[in-house]
Amino acid sequence: MEGRIKWVEGRRFVASSQSGHAIIIDGPKSAGGDNLGPSPMEIVLLGAGGCSTFDVIEILKKSRQDVRDCELVMNADRADEAPRVFTKISMHFIVTGRELNAKAVQRAIDLSREKYCSATAMLGRTAEIACSFEIVEI
């Protein structure tokens, strides 16, 4: 896997992935940025959430669950001093579907957290990660 980061100006960068996608990274105004894109640590958190949600949907589909939507709400705390690593991450999955089995949803989240999600495996070395879920029946 390869990536490239190109400084634009101020605290703004363009990050390009090997697959040809690009995003703007910027800092908040308090750090000299213009707040035109997520900060680097926001991207780390979102990457972990995307990885885990990807897994959960994949596992639920393979379990033949009639999942129609999945939203992940995340909150994270960081260390007060550098390096300001994540110390706590809360991941709350809102899974929508028909006749979803709560045990299947819990299993999908557990498998992602314990086996498949590379991003949460890395972050779990410095952060306590707590997962919860709710099911919305349609």
3D structure, described in words:
The chain has helices at residues 40-62, 102-116, 118-123; strands at residues 3-9, 12-17, 22-25, 66-78, 86-98, 128-137. The chain has 138 residues and is an alpha+beta fold. It folds into two domains: 1-38, Single Sheet (N-terminal domain of TfIIb), CATH 2.20.25; 40-137, 2-Layer Sandwich (GMP Synthetase, Chain A, domain 3). The radius of gyration is 17 Å and the shape is elongated. The model has no long low-confidence stretch (mean pLDDT 97).
Let me know the average pLDDT.
97
Residues in β-strands, percent: 35-45%
Any idea what the radius of gyration is?
17 Å
Number of strands: 6
The major pleated sheet works out as: 3 strands, antiparallel
Q: What is the global morphology?
A: elongated
Overall tally of structural domains: 2
CATH architecture of the largest domain: 2-Layer Sandwich
Low-confidence stretches: none
The first-level CATH class name of the largest domain: Alpha Beta
Distance between the termini: 39 Å
CATH topology of the largest domain: GMP Synthetase, Chain A, domain 3
Helical fraction equals: 25-40%
Helices and strands in order:
Elements lengths: L2 E7 L2 E6 L4 E4 L14 H23 L3 E13 L7 E13 L3 H15 L1 H6 L4 E10 L1
Quick summary:
The protein is an alpha+beta fold and 138 residues long. 32% of the residues lie in helices and 38% in strands.
Notable characteristics:
138 residues; alpha+beta; N-terminal domain of TfIIb; GMP Synthetase, Chain A, domain 3; 2 domains; 3-stranded antiparallel sheet; 3-stranded mixed sheet; 32% helix; elongated
